[in-house]
Write a structure and sequence with these properties.
about 400 residues; alpha+beta; 3-stranded antiparallel sheet; binds guanosine-5'-triphosphate; binds manganese (II) ion
Length: about 400
């Protein structure tokens, strides 16, 4: 037994981007506890502590068997004293007192509820809590003027806090495909984010759009958005130039063409019947959706399906968060790698690049500080190779 655990230790490398982390997690009881503490730290403006808990959780996610004894953790990276105390508590008492305490604290509960509104971050929630606003009714009764995003977030609160299924993601994908194809035939659409990593549900659906001919993607986003708007598919959208690189990645400063790199945060209005394929059944009236669903694709009618069908009686659509990103083909591999996640995997890739390779990685480019030049890549495999890392496929980036 002990020898076996020693073997486990030796394969856990310290950066999450050096490890294969599938969705099969044998240690959810520990990783849930650590993730909750990470979330609480992040909501409390303690990012350092947040990352420490996330790294500890990620190490446990990479193990091939459940931890049953603290001794099995000897030699594993990223497990600090605090994380070990939490794990010990769970092992000995079935739960961590710190986690239970946090979960029950009014502050944490309020932060969770308020930041679950699309458009509300930790800072805003913090400010509201200081003013005595702890719940949605209190927020609605308050005299606060909400911005456009927050209004949409509040209006679609329930829908947006219900996980998006893969079937819904695929249905959104077909709509996005139609939109893109009608404004720029030949463009390419790739599912990114959690669904690309094989997750079965997500908090949103993410797409990366490019065109094989450099430059053809310029101006694409506003056209796609107009198309979607004209067909009534958008409940909310905000298109921005990507400023991510400028704020965070110093040296890998954009060449002028990065102005082309745009993203759109949106809320889609997904018709309930769209989930069953784009085939529009003209006969689909209010009293027949259930039967129609069953006839076309019985496999899609699951528990969540029937829940939403119930709602469909009132509202034959649901709101879904969708992120669209447009990248020039020259940056596509970097955008693909940068937007596939997980968030910790991405963070670790950039840390690895900076600390171990003296390189700066962003969703646009990879800059080698030693050679003072950008390293080109047309695939994710090439980027891993530049970084001196073994290639990890999307399904094993679930750190
Ligand atoms: P779920 O949506 O809950 O399934 O998880 P997810 O992994 O898809 O997370 P999310 O949609 O929030 O983000 C997807 C990926 O995009 C993650 O790897 C993020 O790091 C990345 N990402 C999010 N926002 C930005 C941004 O502003 N710039 C860049 N470059 N990447 C981002
Ligand atoms: Mn996502
Ligand atoms: Mn997203």
């Amino acid at each position: 037994q002990v020898d076996e655990s020693k073997e486990v230790e030796s394969i856990v490398l310290s950066y999450a981007c050096q490890r294969r982390t599938t969705l099969e997690n044998h240690n959810t009881v520990f990783t849930d506890a650590l993730s909750l503490l990470a979330e609480n730290a992040e909501l409390s403006d303690e990012d350092g502590r947040g990352v420490a808990f996330r790294r500890a959780a990620a190490v446990l996610k990479a193990l091939h068997s459940p931890v049953t004894d603290l001794l099995q953790l000897r030699g594993l990276p990223c497990l600090g004293g605090h994380s070990l105390r939490v794990i010990k508590d769970v092992l000995e008492n079935g739960a961590s007192s710190e986690v239970e305490c946090t979960k029950q604290s009014e502050r944490f509960k309020a932060l969770k509820v308020l930041t679950s509104i699309f458009g509300v971050g930790a800072k805003t929630a913090e400010r509201w809590i200081r003013e005595g606003i702890h719940s949605l009714p209190q927020l609605q009764d308050s005299a606060h003027t909400l911005n456009r995003a927050q209004q949409a977030g509040l209006e679609h609160y329930d829908d947006l806090n219900q996980p998006v299924t893969k079937a819904e993601g695929d249905a959104i994908g077909e709509i996005v495909e139609k939109a893109v194809m009608s404004v720029l035939p030949g463009a390419q659409i790739t599912l990114i984010g959690g669904f690309r990593r094989g997750k079965l549900t997500g908090h949103d659906v993410d797409f990366l759009i490019t065109h094989p001919e450099e430059g053809r993607e310029v101006g694409l986003m506003p056209k796609v958005v107009s198309w979607l708007e004209s067909k009534g598919f958008l409940l909310y959208q905000k298109t921005t130039r990507n400023s991510y690189l400028e704020s965070k990645d110093g040296p890998a400063r954009p060449s002028s063409n990065m102005d082309r790199f745009e993203r759109c945060f949106s809320i889609f209005k997904l018709p309930e019947d769209a989930k069953e394929g784009t085939k529009q059944t003209e006969t689909l009236t209010e009293d027949t959706p259930e039967d129609t669903c069953r006839l076309t694709t019985p496999s899609l009618v699951k528990d969540e399906g029937s829940q939403s069908t119930k709602r469909a009686n009132l509202k034959p659509w649901r709101a879904v968060r969708v992120d669209l990103v447009v990248s020039p083909i020259s940056q596509f591999a970097f955008a693909l790698l940068g937007w596939t996640g997980s968030k910790l995997f991405e963070r670790e890739l950039r840390r690895w690049a900076g600390h171990e390779k003296a390189m700066s990685l962003s969703s646009h480019a990879l800059y080698d500080n030693t050679q003072s030049k950008y390293l080109r890549a047309s695939s994710e495999e090439e980027i891993f190779a530049h970084l001196g890392l073994e290639y990890i496929p999307p399904s094993e980036r679930n750190a």
